[in-house]
User: Which sequence fits this backbone?
């Protein structure tokens, strides 16, 4: 590896990797590396300082106050930006805070077109807060229906909020087609790319303006931090986001930036294993007699399989299924599982299971859930890095318990 001395960096003696474009797996390791400190430590240090001293009244160092900029946060932000192929990123205290930061870009009384079945926390900010505080209005549309999107556009429409795949039913949006329409109408686009991580989907290359992540999921990857990040596709947007972040100050702290950056180093190997495991799990479930339906865009039987092949690297590491059983049966399934743990999150190295009806989507009414296709027999699996044979054996045991101990069919 060729290292050369950096010219303009404020960290004395910092080294910078040559600017040669690298493949994704290499970038997951080496992006952010230029923030190595003077002693050439192989990993950037955690800068806990709130303030950085100045030499004179005329001194304008890159780092002055950590709410504005912090070297550990910079290292992490530049790494995610490099993976998403954006111009820069802003790290936030949580995923929902990253969403709130994006919404700060909008003027008062703006209208936002939102993907049907959007993440519950996004819905909550839009409906319970922004609609009251900023006069924001929303239209929820299936963003694959471009005629419906066009019909929903109003003079005050400022943003289209995309989520693909959606949670938990893994519906995709044709990102390229939608962004062409949005761009022609002068409307900003932002995608929640949490379920894919930059490994699986690079939305900026498909025409999106902003990419948002809950770093609590695949970016961190170890279920040990809460964070969010917004990646900008243009310098103008980055500048505005940095100003918002500095003004509202809901920034990611240096310890969590360190953890996220550390997690990122293995993103490529984690995602490769998790997505391959998920495909195997989906194929197993697809033919299981206790399973009514499997939702996984990487299966040939998924109605958007062709779109998945076009815009994603794999079907992802989340699989949803509707099972043949009642609540008691599903409780037996949960108890019988030894590897898949019942949890609210996803995206960690360990396999997890979520009951959308009573967990992630519990704040919605039965009617709202019904309209979204969320039924009481729906389970969402976040597939981890364990050996796929053990995962399938675990699910087989769980499904046998669901059916009262006997396997039918
Ligand atoms: C978890 C999640 C969020 C919110 O992120 P937090 O880090 O929990 O605030 C947003 N979008 C999606 C798709 C998520 O899964």
Assistant:
């Amino acid at each position: 590896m060729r290292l050369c001395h950096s010219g303009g960096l404020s960290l004395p003696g910092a080294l910078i990797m040559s600017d040669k474009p690298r493949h994704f797996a290499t970038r997951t390791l080496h992006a952010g590396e230029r923030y190595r400190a003077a002693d050439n430590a192989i990993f950037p240090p955690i800068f806990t300082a709130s303030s950085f001293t100045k030499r004179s009244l005329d001194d304008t160092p890159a780092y002055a106050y950590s709410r504005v900029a912090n070297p550990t946060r910079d290292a992490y932000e530049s790494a995610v930006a490099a993976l998403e192929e954006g111009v820069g990123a802003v790290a936030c205290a949580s995923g929902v805070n990253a969403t709130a930061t994006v919404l700060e870009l909008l003027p008062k009384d703006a209208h936002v077109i939102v993907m049907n079945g959007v993440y519950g926390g996004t819905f909550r900010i839009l409906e319970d807060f922004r609609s009251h505080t900023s006069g924001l209005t929303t239209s929820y549309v299936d963003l694959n229906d471009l005629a419906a999107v066009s019909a929903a556009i109003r003079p005050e429409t400022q943003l289209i909020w995309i989520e693909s795949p959606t949670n938990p039913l893994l519906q995709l949006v044709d990102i390229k087609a939608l962004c062409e329409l949005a761009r022609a109408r002068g409307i900003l686009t932002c995608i929640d790319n949490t379920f894919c991580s930059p490994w699986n989907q690079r939305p900026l290359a498909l025409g999106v303006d902003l990419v948002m992540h809950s770093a609590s999921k695949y970016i961190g990857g170890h279920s040990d931090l809460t964070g969010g990040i917004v990646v900008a596709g243009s310098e103008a947007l980055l500048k505005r986001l940095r100003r918002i972040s500095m003004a509202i100050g809901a920034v990611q702290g240096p310890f969590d930036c360190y953890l996220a950056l550390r997690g990122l180093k293995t993103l490529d190997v984690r995602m490769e294993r998790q997505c391959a495991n998920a495909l195997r799990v989906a194929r197993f479930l697809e033919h299981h007699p206790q399973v009514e339906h499997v939702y996984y865009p990487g299966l040939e039987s998924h109605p958007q399989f062709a779109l998945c092949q076009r815009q994603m690297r794999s079907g992802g590491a989340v699989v949803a299924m509707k099972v043949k059983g009642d609540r008691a049966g599903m409780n037996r399934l949960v108890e019988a599982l030894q590897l898949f743990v019942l949890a609210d999150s996803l995206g960690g190295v360990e396999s997890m299971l979520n009951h959308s009806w009573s967990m992630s989507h519990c704040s919605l009414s039965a009617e709202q859930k019904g309209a979204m296709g969320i039924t009481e027999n729906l389970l969402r699996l976040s597939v981890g890095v364990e050996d796929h044979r053990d995962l399938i054996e675990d699910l087989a045991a769980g499904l046998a318990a669901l059916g009262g101990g006997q396997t039918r069919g």
